[in-house]
């Protein structure tokens, strides 16, 4: 797909995020909106997946290690055709297959149940090891938060991945600079992330704008071309991207818009879509 086509898809994904979180009256819109472009690129351009066969053996795997950003993953999966977009309005409802954190047993297209921060990357490393062991060609992608990278388990997994030379693994850090309690630099600063991953024997791509499809495309091409070591993409993103009053606002980490805010957000995204 062209960058312009991807922008249109990502805009629809953002509508799905806002719709789901508003319907649930809870959830995490900020990080979901910020990572929407990266997840859109993964599912519509980068990864080998098939909505008609979500469990096909040779599919590429995606692990949303920052599992609270499930509204973003669900919106992408719905847009890609894994399940009806109408299901997004059941987010976090009793009996829905779209719970507050991803559940691989209930939701088509979800490869790993996540939510406990730091654990998703370990699961992704295990998937990459399995592919190497069995001679499979699929690649594994894991999306982490920068706040999540304060967890020690992240670095245990990184150490193992680097030592095992898992060049079929691509870790993306959604570096928006904000976490639930405030700026990451004030809570427990994990920087410099790039140098840390290099120390753990990763090839590192520093993505200056993780909301720009041209740069996203180049970053994943570099990751795919890298042999002999895993890749970490440190992606500078904007939390709440696409909704003016949510952009770069820590308060929108984990709350839902009210009816008036929902209407404003959807109007902004509709207008943005008409301009594309």
UniProtKB/TrEMBL annotation:
Q: Does the keyword Nucleotide-binding apply?
A: no
A matching Pfam family: Transketolase_N
Question: What keywords are annotated for this sequence in UniProt?
Answer: Metal-binding, Thiamine pyrophosphate, Transferase
Entry's PROSITE patterns? Answer: TRANSKETOLASE_1
Kindly list any coiled-coil regions of this protein: none
Q: List its EC numbers.
A: 2.2.1.1
Domain annotation Transketolase N-terminal: ranges:
7-266
User: Which cofactors does it use?
Assistant: thiamine diphosphate
Question: Is the keyword Metal-binding assigned to this protein?
Answer: yes
| A GO MF label | transketolase activity
Q: What family is this?
A: Belongs to the transketolase family.
Q: What is this protein called?
A: Transketolase
What organism does the record attribute this protein to?
Collinsella aerofaciens
Top-level taxonomy = Bacteria, Bacillati, Actinomycetota, Coriobacteriia, Coriobacteriales
